[in-house]
Write a structure and sequence with these properties.
Elements: H1 3-10, E1 21-24, H2 28-43, E2 48-50, E3 57-61, H3 65-75, E4 84-86, H4 92-96, H5 102-114, E5 119-124, H6 131-134, E6 139-143, H7 148-157, E7 161-162, H8 177-184, E8 190-193, E9 204-209, E10 212-217, H9 223-226, E11 232-234, E12 257-259, E13 273-278, E14 287-291, H10 295-310, E15 316-319, H11 328-339
Parallel strand pairs: 1-8, 4-6, 5-9, 10-11, 12-15, 13-14, 13-15
Antiparallel strand pairs: 2-3, 3-7, 4-7, 5-6, 9-10
Length: 341
């Protein structure tokens, strides 16, 4: 099945209203039986909302093309945007990808340093990975999650799990189970509630090419950390989609968003607008969400604050900038895509 045919065959399922069940998975006593139920659902070609340490994902068996089609349909995700494949450990690198040369040395080193964790590698794919999961690309995006719920589901299934963020396409990423219900309730049968996500920003994505790392999406693993292993080159924006999260417009609220320099005069519509700020800010906006000035502290709170602003019935949202060092680069990447256009 091609990736376009896969999405088309499932488009009719958008009209089917499901009863989405929320199952707690907060401790060991809850996680194991919840993971068994989710894995059984995925084994049968179904989908489920699962927590990771970054954001909640909409999971399916990564090796079943028809199951992946249900993910694309539920999210209304375009067929050209590939899925991240979650694996149990680094042994799956050689199973799902064809690494050679410098990448054959570098990829395992990166996995040893950053897996399990919020880190994704884009590598040449083997045919075992369905065309739909790769969106027709010759590569596959691999990650090993550190969240105990996602790890338990992958272990119980015994196969890789494909899981993009569990929201409708282009919208603000979900960091709680309730966010998933608001986005996909009635579209998917099951969500495992593992509590709020620890990092709150999607994983770092790099392509491992010719002994260097192409930073495709900034995330919790910073460019400074990656530079200890190989030269890091940041991918140019607008260069096409070679990994998830690379579209110019993404992570966006329904309310129009633009940047506002904190030292500038108040915009004329401040009384009906909201502001997302980092550190102290003066009065003037109708609603203000103030995040810590330290990007490490701000990142887990970022999407939740943006979601609250979007739900406040405002005419416009403004955002202040944050210095682009460390995790600040990832936050600014999300804000620029959310404000695109």
């Amino acid at each position: 099945m091609s990736f376009q045919q896969g999405v088309q065959t499932k488009s009719v399922e958008r009209a089917e209203v499901l009863k989405t069940r929320l199952r707690p998975a907060h401790d060991l006593a809850e996680i194991r039986p919840a993971a068994e139920e989710a894995a059984d659902l995925l084994r049968q070609g179904g989908v489920a909302g699962l927590p990771t340490e970054t954001v909640y994902g909409l999971a399916c068996d990564a090796l079943q093309a028809e199951a992946a089609a249900k993910v694309f349909a539920a999210k209304e995700r375009p067929a050209f945007d590939p899925l991240i494949v979650h694996v149990a450990d680094a042994s799956w690198i050689g199973v799902l990808s064809s690494v050679s040369g410098a990448a054959a040395v570098l990829a395992p080193r990166l996995a040893a340093a950053f897996w399990p964790g919020p880190f994704t590698m884009v590598l040449p794919a083997k045919d075992l990975v369905p065309d739909l999961v790769r969106s027709g690309l010759p590569t596959v995006a691999l990650r090993c999650s550190a969240h105990p719920v996602m790890a338990a589901v992958v272990e119980e299934l015994g196969r890789p799990v494909a899981a993009p963020s569990a929201n409708r396409f282009g919208r603000i990423s979900p960091v709680t189970a309730q966010d998933v219900l608001e986005e996909l309730g009635g579209r998917i049968p099951l969500v495992l509630d593992g509590g709020p996500c620890r990092h709150g920003l999607e994983s770092t994505i790099v392509a491992v090419e010719n002994g260097r790392l192409i930073l495709l999406r900034p995330g919790p693993v910073t460019a400074e950390e990656l530079a200890k292993f190989a030269p890091v080159v940041r991918a140019a924006r607008g260069g096409g989609v070679s990994a998830p999260g690379m579209l110019e417009s993404h992570y966006a609220p329904r309310t129009p968003l633009c940047f506002w320099p904190a030292e500038a005069a108040l915009p004329s519509d401040a009384a009906t607008s909201g502001l997302l700020a980092f550190g102290a800010v003066g009065p003037g906006f109708a609603v203000v969400e103030v995040l810590p000035s330290d990007p490490v502290e701000a990142a887990p709170l970022f999407f939740a604050a943006l979601r609250r602003l979007d739900a406040s019935g405002l005419t416009r949202l403004y955002a202040c900038a944050i210095p682009e060092s460390g995790l600040g680069m990832a936050i600014m990447d999300r804000l620029r895509r959310a404000a695109h256009g």
